[in-house]
């Protein structure tokens, strides 16, 4: 094939040129995003039930929805949580489930049971979770002093939101912190009673004045007109002019009985930017959009907003494109330094400027053509696929060096230029194909990991397979053609004499070879000891998901653990911001209930999430310490969590599951166990280290009870008292004004007085116009009750989070504790997911090693020789672990990727070394003057000399290209550093392994059998 293609260099060159042109066009069409558009198999159902207790939400709403949804296809887990006014159900599906169909199915089932839900309940929201739901940036909208905040809310909703939605690549715009205008009616009780009326007269007058005649029309000859009542109100002035009839027959304007005005609707949540109230607009990108084009468009739009709306300030925060820019920057750095160091090393070893130029052409062309594969597999350019390309670049340089070195040796051996190119490629073709297949055999099976890890590895596996496959085509076709073109006019052929630099290296290698083969048994024994020692280092290494990144931002999650209002929550956060003023660059906070459509977390008035951005890490650490002290001193009841601000990786990988949760259900009542029973039982829990789960957390509440005896004595109807209570304490909506989609509620104004005072001062009338205070018919008491009601597929449960080490050893104790109290106990949590993932990973790695073995057995036609390659792997892994330990790094996703890169290069070197030994041995055995034993010794020695240069060049170019990352700073360098440590450690040991362990193991494990056959 190579001979055929080299005979047609123009056709080959034009074909590659056409491929590169098409690849460049495709590259401009590929979507660029932070993460692949993964379908996270979760759906959240949210229920908003104003003025309802957790028990009412569970019994009347969530239990009905769970019963309907339990038959969903692919449903693995279903957990629900009912709190005050809010309930959520989180559905987790198998990863094979088509989430588009599951989303439709959930909506259909909820529509089916809508009629059985409480009257007046708004339809439950169904939220589908996707990686594209993670906002790419947040736009802060801050009203300037004196500007009406409600007008700014209307500006954000009706103008800014729509203008941002029109930007190319934007899929959704979400807003939090909006303020709405309502009309409040504040009755004048003394005036109403003086005229012998009640609040009901005022309410009835407003309802009558705002009534409509929907669908009513009159005919006037050939015309038909739809009727609109002239009494319909639009403004507070219209309402105040409505007539109210007194029992005496007098007609009184409503304005004399009540004060009507525009006011801001009571907020259940706020957004703060710094110490000021603001709005935040989160921007979400389309799956096919390019993030690196979207963010500049968004910044340009914000500049226009500043000019168009000078009464408002704007700012951009939490820009997630920084991670993507870091990945692209790292790839560019790898290419740049890879090219520079490859040039330097090749020039140092080969003394010819043409060879580095050939690699300089082949490297970017391979990378560019790889994007064609991205297009056909519908893969976007994201951090995961870019890391796959970065993996393949090391192998790409490796293949190029090996092919060029082999062609050069053939030419030095006296073959013509054309024959050197053909023979040089043919000789290493099968070994290079095997090395690529073995690399893929180690990597591709990771795609079959369950969960999100497997979904993410798909992009990476395709990227690695793409660049390795293209690199083979380039190495076998383009490189020899370029070599032929570059050297076709050069009549001078090198005499084969190496430069002084390489001769010194060869001398060192020969000394090492003599030492190793002079003490063969001792050397193989040392290698045998190093294998378990190196692998054992993993036991003392820390493990984590992602490496520790030097972040300049942090978050504070606070649950004040008190029944405070949203206004008090806002005031506390504002005071906290003022106390820390000057210690941060930017700060924002989502206080109380969040208005985001896509928010799938827990909405609570008592909670807040604060975000801080700092100039330096030192300032961040100092401020977090001050923050903790401030909260401990001023709010000892508060529960808070300080930590790094989550990026898109954290939001994707973090699990909602607790680490280890012990759940129990009452087998008799199927209700939460009462506090009187539960507290003594918890004091006897088998382990001391535990925390209360949501179903055991308590909060203070006020319980009203009606005095039926007094109501009967004074002949007051129960519903009359209940209605008065709902007007007094609830959000009582009299009517709504609807204009072109804008809805303005008309509500009774809620009093700011304490409820005890209201019960003492509010009066209720009887049929004989006698008035009594409401407090005479209502008793109240304070009591603690459960804050949440939690349930799963099997019904209501309560739980504790176990924080002790190795909680799995207490399983029998947990079950025995529950059985003694007639409780059904089960254990769930991330602990079990991690155990399952580890078992899967071990199984997949074993399959990978088997695949590697089978490929090599087919390549070498031997069952023994592949074992030599397999035995080199633990030596390289041990070297990687050693460097990670010395550098203070950990086992994480990035260091694991580095291991794969390193193993790919190590396997490549070992395969080529064994292939060269086998080929030379056959040549030497054919000579009658050489015995089988001598042929073996000569083949091992000569193969070491031949492969020394390419092994050193590939290792040195890879190591030198990665070293600058160690001394770099920033987000990208922090992510890549563990990968670099793995590659450096593995290749340093791996190079020695390829040089000495492979020939030594070959002599021990292969030679005796061959000698007997010989």
UniProtKB/TrEMBL annotation:
InterPro entries given in the database record: AcrB_DN_DC_subdom (IPR027463), Acrflvin-R (IPR001036)
Protein name stated in the entry: Multidrug efflux pump subunit AcrB
Keyword presence, DNA repair: no
Molecular-function annotations in GO: xenobiotic transmembrane transporter activity
Alphabetical keyword list: Membrane, Transmembrane, Transmembrane helix
Superkingdom of source: Bacteria
TM spans (from-to): 12-30, 331-350, 357-377, 383-407, 428-449, 461-486, 522-541, 841-860, 867-887, 893-912, 951-973, 979-1005
Keyword Ligase in record: no
GO CC annotation, single: plasma membrane
